[in-house]
Write a structure and sequence with these properties.
Strand order of the largest sheet: 7-1-2-6-3-5-4-8-9
Bound molecules: threonylcarbamoyladenylate, magnesium ion
Low-confidence stretches: none
Order of helices and strands: HEEHEHHEHEHEHEEEHEEEHEH
CATH topology of the largest domain: DHBP synthase
CATH superfamily of the largest domain: DHBP synthase
Structural class: alpha/beta
Number of domains: 2
Radius of gyration: 19 Å
Number of helices: 10
CATH class of the largest domain: Alpha Beta
Shape: globular
Oligomer: single chain
Helix content: 25-40%
Distance between the termini: 38 Å
């Protein structure tokens, strides 16, 4: 049963965990200032402690009380918030997002989600809420309330049902540190959209290492084979484009990258539940949202991303 935003805010105040619906994926949320609550997230996910979390806030003004925004960070926030963009900036108030949530870094990851349910919870709570994807570590992120309950429902005091996630892939993570803008994790906000607002990205490698980006990540139990043009014995083929494979397993029959992103994690899970010999996935074009989809697929397949 779904909790109300007020019930979720009350659970957060008591130091308990919640399921937070967002437009990207479901989050496992806690009061960002409460180290014990944050520790409970790592425990429920079985996540390595060095991986810092994203703090979700209600609006850009709230974000600027936690992080230090330069001109470029402000422009990015104005262009893409509320929405699927996370900005890593120097931390201004380290108590609001505790050390454990930042993995001891002097930077902080901030996002204003676009989902109404998420914003209602954040408004009712009134402070930053850290929320990694609600899957157990290394598994695909949940994009429906049912999948979120199945992954980490055992650990929460309140779960807010916000329906199916419209985007279906985690947010784009961008750092804005020392005047340099670097893409740490591709997502729904594409490289060209970022560059149109903040100028060329810094691909020097300096800012590009996002701690905790494991090589094998987002992985179902069945082995994943990417760039597959046909299925082999016992495999399920997740097709892309018209006439590719069984329509039931199509990421997008019309070759629409948005539709494929929204379907990706759900279909990986549904395929996995049938215990196939493997999951094959059609080639996905690299441009636009395809960069993020291919990034997740390479990790699901255990290839270095
Ligand atoms: O769409 C999303 O972003 C979802 C929903 C729930 O909002 N959340 C999510 O959180 O994917 P999580 O914790 O699974 O991913 C956080 C990402 C990781 O890649 C982490 O390494 C990076 O953000 N990150 C967080 N803080 C950072 C920091 N200070 N410096 C560099 N990278 C950071
Ligand atoms: Mg995750």
């Amino acid at each position: 049963m779904s909790a109300t935003p007020e019930q979720a805010a009350e659970a957060l105040r008591q130091g308990a965990l919640i399921l937070l619906p967002t437009e990207t994926v479901y989050g496992l949320g806690a009061d960002a200032s409460n180290p014990q609550a944050v520790a409970a997230i790592f425990e429920a996910k079985g996540r390595p402690r060095f991986n810092p979390l994203i703090a979700h806030v209600a609006d850009a003004d709230a974000a600027e009380t936690v992080g230090v925004f330069d001109e470029k960070a402000r422009r990015l926030a104005e262009a893409f918030w509320p929405g699927p963009l996370t900005l890593v900036t120097p931390v201004r108030d380290a108590r609001r997002v505790c050390d454990l949530a930042r993995a001891g870094l002097d930077s902080v990851a901030l996002r204003v989600p676009g989902h109404e349910g998420a914003r209602a919870v954040l408004a009712a709570f009134g402070g930053p809420v850290v929320a990694p994807s609600a899957n157990r570590s290394g598994r695909p992120s949940p994009t429906t309330f049912g999948d979120a309950l199945e992954e980490t429902g055992f650990a929460v005091a309140a779960g807010v049902d916000g329906g199916a996630c419209a985007v279906g892939l985690e947010s784009t993570v961008v750092s804005v540190l020392d005047g340099r803008v670097a893409l740490l994790r591709p997502g729904a906000v594409t490289r060209s959209q970022l560059e149109s607002v903040a100028g060329p990205l810094d691909d020097s490698g300096e800012g590009r290492r996002s701690p905790g980006r494991l090589t094998l990540h987002y992985a179902p139990d069945a082995p994943v084979r990417i760039e597959a043009t046909a299925k082999r014995g016992g495999e399920i083929l997740l097709g892309f484009g018209s006439g590719v494979g069984d329509p039931r397993w199509s990421l997008s029959a019309t070759g629409d990258l948005r539709e494929a992103a929204a379907n990706l994690f759900r279909l990986l899970r549904e395929a996995d539940r049938t215990h196939p010999a493997g999951i094959a996935v059609s080639p996905i074009p690299a441009e636009g949202l395809g960069e993020a989809i291919n990034d997740r697929l390479k990790r699901a397949a255990g290839h270095v991303g």
